[in-house]
Amino acid sequence: MQEIYEWFRWLNEATGINLTIVYDSYDRERMIDGFVNTIYLSLVCLGFSVIIGIVGAWLQGSPLKWTRRLVNGYIQLFRNTPPLVQMYFFFFALGSLMPRVENEWGIMEPILSNWHWAILSLSFFAGSFNVEIFRSGIEAVPKATVEAAEALGYNRLQTYVYVVLPLALRVCLPALNNNLVNLVKTTTLAYAIAVPEMLYVANQIWSDSLNVPEMMTFLLFAYVLLVGLLVMVMNKWERSMRLPGFGA
Amino acid sequence: MAKRHDVYGTTDLPVLLPAAERLNRQAAAERVLGAPKLRLRAWHGLALAAVIVLWTSFVWAQADGAGNEQQESVISAIWRWLPVLLGGFVFNIAISFLSMGIGTVAGTLLGIMQISQVWPVRGSSWLVTQFFRNAPWLVLLFFCMFLLPFEFTVFGVTIPFPDWIKAVIGLALPVMANVSEIVRGAIQSIPSGQWEAAHSLAFSRWQILSQIILPQCVKRMLPPWMNLYAILTMATVLASVVGVGEVMTLTQRVLAAENRPEFLVPFYGFVMLLFFAYCYPIARTTQKLELRYAVKQ
């Protein structure tokens, strides 16, 4: 490892290509933290957005008119406003209304940190897409299949868990994966409220080490590789989960 | 997307459902109009009024909560700053138009290159498309912001290259890649029988593409293209992160100038409302167009 570090140090001296994230242990650890934070933010938001999607799709099938309208209103509001403005609205506007609590050093601090708001706003943003995706998946399951399950003595919950959901999940998997890829790309917005994900960390590093072109290029390739890898894995998964003769 | 399976609701019996007649009339009216009609009902207006009333009362309560009677109410503050904010929003829309224009032209070329028969052209355009599609918009924006020079000198003439032009280029890149995929998808969705038929009529490849395939594609490309435009419009706010003076930057400056915490919710809410008012009709029209074209396939 030491030799690799030395080589990059030499590269800087010889050519001026200053990749501090390789040879400088402080910058390297910051960058690794940033990468881990990006993954963590994506995973947590993915979990919450899927929950929002399932609950939303269930509420949309409600017989109550106003419940349906409320869910539709949520979907339209979050789909048709910029995610960055949503994040600012959550963090600066709603965050200012939140009560403050004392932390362990006796400093007054908002009850929800920028991390919480980033997770909240990104989950609601991605969730608004998931509701529609799940609903279309559930609608794609033929009624005859549900009735067949009923005829075999399944109750409503069993039908839902054992018959409808496994079929619906396969149908909406491509759309769901698209949304996941989008979510990973949208986590960069958390930069705006100082969540230390990859973009934010890169910004800190190029402010300290004055290596903007190198860091920018590195960042671009890092994201392209991350997302490209994700797309590849997802496509493979989609192919393996495909239902023969069902769907498009 | 998966096709919807209409196992139920299809019958060969001559049954005219009550809604069918009304839907027929509606469809006939829309065919005359050439565009889907916006069907506003009384409750739309009522809902809007209710939202406004709730909003103002909420804001009023907050303003009262501040305790100072001499302070300006939020409504009049928004009204006072309205020209500034709307000016910023118009700038956003201008950026979106420019990026969409550049992105569409470049993306169409790239999309056509993707179905080229020369493999280096096909491969390189595929790579460019995937690269810019997979990169986050904000990172591309940063990239253009920091790595493009702020002025060009061509034959001794210095051409300034302000921030907003760099933002336009930064946003045009992902648009280009997405348009490229839309064009490729649309071209490949045309049945190959059409290519073969045109070949047998001695059309050249370029003639087939420009006179037979692409004209049919326009209709298929319109809904996803409009969807992309709505996404782009919402992405123009990202330019505020890199310091272009659009609506979000101006809002933050206004809030800093006013220095009143109770203004935060209404001002940010107002920006959201602006974007919603602009993007929601686009989304609705896109949905209607999708439904309209789906039937005829």
TrEMBL record, chain B:
<comment type="similarity">
    <text>Belongs to the binding-protein-dependent transport system permease family. HisMQ subfamily.</text>
</comment>
<feature type="transmembrane region" description="Helical">
    <location>
        <begin position="135"/>
        <end position="157"/>
    </location>
</feature>
<protein>
    <submittedName>
        <fullName>Polar amino acid ABC transporter permease</fullName>
    </submittedName>
</protein>
<dbReference type="InterPro" id="IPR010065">
    <property type="entry name" value="AA_ABC_transptr_permease_3TM"/>
</dbReference>
<dbReference type="Pfam" id="PF00528">
    <property type="entry name" value="BPD_transp_1"/>
</dbReference>
<feature type="transmembrane region" description="Helical">
    <location>
        <begin position="42"/>
        <end position="61"/>
    </location>
</feature>
<keyword id="KW-1133">Transmembrane helix</keyword>
<keyword id="KW-1003">Cell membrane</keyword>
<feature type="domain" description="ABC transmembrane type-1">
    <location>
        <begin position="89"/>
        <end position="283"/>
    </location>
</feature>
<feature type="transmembrane region" description="Helical">
    <location>
        <begin position="263"/>
        <end position="283"/>
    </location>
</feature>
<feature type="transmembrane region" description="Helical">
    <location>
        <begin position="82"/>
        <end position="115"/>
    </location>
</feature>
<keyword id="KW-0813">Transport</keyword>
<keyword id="KW-0472">Membrane</keyword>
<feature type="transmembrane region" description="Helical">
    <location>
        <begin position="228"/>
        <end position="251"/>
    </location>
</feature>
<dbReference type="InterPro" id="IPR043429">
    <property type="entry name" value="ArtM/GltK/GlnP/TcyL/YhdX-like"/>
</dbReference>
<dbReference type="InterPro" id="IPR035906">
    <property type="entry name" value="MetI-like_sf"/>
</dbReference>
<keyword id="KW-0029">Amino-acid transport</keyword>
<dbReference type="InterPro" id="IPR000515">
    <property type="entry name" value="MetI-like"/>
</dbReference>
<keyword id="KW-0812">Transmembrane</keyword>
